[in-house]
Amino acid sequence: MKTNVTIAASVLTANYLSLKDDLTNLQQAGINWIHFDVMDHHFVPNLSFGPKILSDICQFNPNFNLDCHLMVKITTPKVHDYLKPFMLPQVKNITLHYEALTKDQLTEFLMWKNPGFKKGLAINPDTAISKIFHYLPYLDTILIMSVKPGAGGQAFIADSTNKIKLLVAHIANNFPNLTIGVDGGINDLTAHACINVGANYLVAGSYLLNSNNPIKTQVDKLFSHE
Ligand code: DX5
Ligand code: ZN
């Protein structure tokens, strides 16, 4: 795998009674990005976890970088107030959903200068990628959802590679630091397909944590697929 591609492990489908072992195995396999999927039973039907478990993971391994993917409707008047509990030093990325934000919330998030984390916008499979083109100058990451948000273990939606292609074509040589992320249904084959068309950040959950193979084997398979 190309060296400029980052793999983040989603712990959404982990068995939390053995999360420590999974985190240790991930780190030993060379993964230092943990993707933390927050769900609110409102924007998505599922409920997951919040800042307490996030902070426990940070404390368990100070070398992990955390990537918070908030599949939530913001329920405070200010986005800033909602995000505060998630803004821990190890949290390097916070990604909100385009579809979940009001116009004012989106504006506040985009205009927020130097928040101390990289700002991402995620878009659902049925949202056209062109909807977010206008906001690229204010963002660090676009997270293309390659499954319907709300659950791990779903199959990769094949059309997602076309979205990556459209985004790459649109940015041309602008925004060289933009992270193009893909989340959902990532395995060695779909990872390869996404990287081939320009993705440089992949979230993998069940492929890493719910396989019969050891985590290290799965990580190696992801990294070795040229
Ligand atoms: C889906 C989440 C994903 C998901 C990834 O709503 O945002 O991060 O947990 O899991 P897999 O790799 O199993 O699709
Ligand atoms: Zn996610």
Plain-language structure description:
The protein contains 8 helices and 8 strands; from the N terminus they run βαβαβαβαββαβαβαα. The chain has 226 residues and is an alpha/beta fold. The protein has one domain: Alpha-Beta Barrel (TIM Barrel), CATH 3.20.20. It has an 8-stranded parallel beta barrel. The termini are close together. 38% of the residues are buried. The model has no long low-confidence stretch (mean pLDDT 96).
Question: Would you spell out the secondary-structure blueprint of this structure?
Answer:
Layout: E1 6-10, H1 19-28, E2 33-39, H2 51-60, E3 65-71, H3 79-83, E4 91-97, H4 103-111, E5 118-123, E6 141-145, H5 160-171, E7 179-183, H6 188-196, E8 201-204, H7 206-209, H8 215-224
Parallel strand pairs: 1-2, 1-8, 2-3, 3-4, 4-5, 5-6, 6-7, 7-8
Bound molecules: D-xylitol-5-phosphate (DX5) and zinc ion (ZN).
